Amino acid sequence: MNWTTLNLGMSEHPPPILLNPGPVNLSPGVRAALTKPDLCHREPEFADLQAGIRANLLDVYDLTPSEWTSVLLAGSGTAAVEAMLTSVVAEDGKVLVIENGVYGERMARMCKVHGIDHCEVTHAWGDAIDLEAVAKELDLNTRITHVAAVHHETTTGRLNDLEALADLCRGHGIPVLLDGVSSFAAEALNFDSIAACAATASKCLHGVPGVSFVIARRDLLSSESPKRTLYLDLATYCHEQDERNTPFTQPVQIYYALEQALTELEAQGGWRARHKHYSGLAQQVREGLSALGVEPLLKTHESSVALNAYHVPHSISYDTLHDGLKAQGFVIYAGQGRLARDIFRISTMGAITHKDIERLLRAFRDMVGNSAN
Ligand SMILES: *Cc1c(COP(=O)(O)O)cnc(C)c1O
């Protein structure tokens, strides 16, 4: 297939509406930014681009640059989480990992892979964090130096109660390392409660996958930081980026897209406006599906605004539902692991409108009618 026929093919079939939690449907502006002029990552124009993005990331939550730094990495959200854990926890440190879904469990696997001493407070997927169990662990295990937690556990859509957890950790003098990959830019995020937060360009920020970042208190990333990895060492990135440089080649076009996505976020009213927009879309989906007998896994106040999980109706299998909706231009997202057959997920991250959701609900009605359950 040559480029011309590829282009024609794409315009005849508009890309589907992505209801997965990233990569997201791009705005026209972000898509256009991908075609900006070629640029060498050792030129001052790149240094300006990088510095602008780092500053704008701090601005999303009004963070002071003297106290906080944002460090950019090539890689998906997992790279940022792994960089945070490996770069911040000292050689003799110990991490308490809170697990109530895939992403908490992934952080424990990261600790294991890198030989980081850790212990876990586990829950069934979707359950709220058991603060008593966390308190008990912190009391008993005095070697714990950090708590690692997921803000929005995308496995089930649960928004973990960061403030309650942070209060408890503060009482023990333990800093919180946060996986904010699927909440950054869409949920309230009190940085006074945490020491570092890992996130990505391609979820609630509406950028392109390939760049992720960690926002950390500056004093965490000194030259004495542990060196467990060469490529993911945040202190190295931070130092080089402060010097208007980068240790390795960065995905320049994806930077352009992120710069544009941050400009659009600000123009649209920042994270609060995005929260409100997502909240409206999520409510529209909930009400529409509820009318068809399709019920959510969690209550509204337990869920993030960015993604909600729903029970697969008894009248249809997930695969049939997925394929039928895809044929009508909508990509829904399966449950993970043991939830794969039982739930599906709808994320409204990205350039999605109420009109898109109206069409989605019509497509659902065609698929499940009123025979659900
Ligand atoms: C998506 C996600 C990740 C991992 O992101 P990738 O970009 O797939 O590497 C980590 N944590 C949470 C909470 C996520 O939603």
Give me the strand/helix succession.
Answer: HEHHEHEHEHEEEHEEEHHHEHEEEH
Structural class: alpha/beta
The dominant shape is globular
Q: List bound small molecules.
A: pyridoxal-5'-phosphate
Distance between the termini: 45 Å
Strand content: 15-25%
Major sheet strand order? 2-10-9-8-5-3-4
Radius of gyration: 21 Å
Supply the number of helical segments: 12
Ranges where pLDDT stays below 50 over 5 or more residues in a row are 1-9
Largest sheet: 7 strands, mixed
Percentage of residues in helical conformation: 25-40%
**Mean pLDDT, as a whole number?**
94
Total number of beta strands? 14
Question: Which SSEs are present, and which pair or pack?
Answer:
Elements: H1 3-12, E1 17-18, H2 28-33, H3 44-60, E2 68-74, H4 77-88, E3 95-99, H5 102-113, E4 118-122, H6 131-140, E5 146-150, E6 152-153, E7 158-159, H7 162-171, E8 176-179, E9 196-200, E10 211-217, H8 234-242, H9 252-267, H10 270-291, E11 307-311, H11 318-327, E12 330-331, E13 333-334, E14 343-347, H12 354-368
Parallel strand pairs: 1-12, 3-4, 3-5, 5-8, 8-9
Antiparallel strand pairs: 2-10, 6-7, 9-10, 11-14, 13-14
Pyridoxal-5'-phosphate is lined by residues 21, 76-78, 81, 103, 150, 152, 154, 179, 181-182, 200.
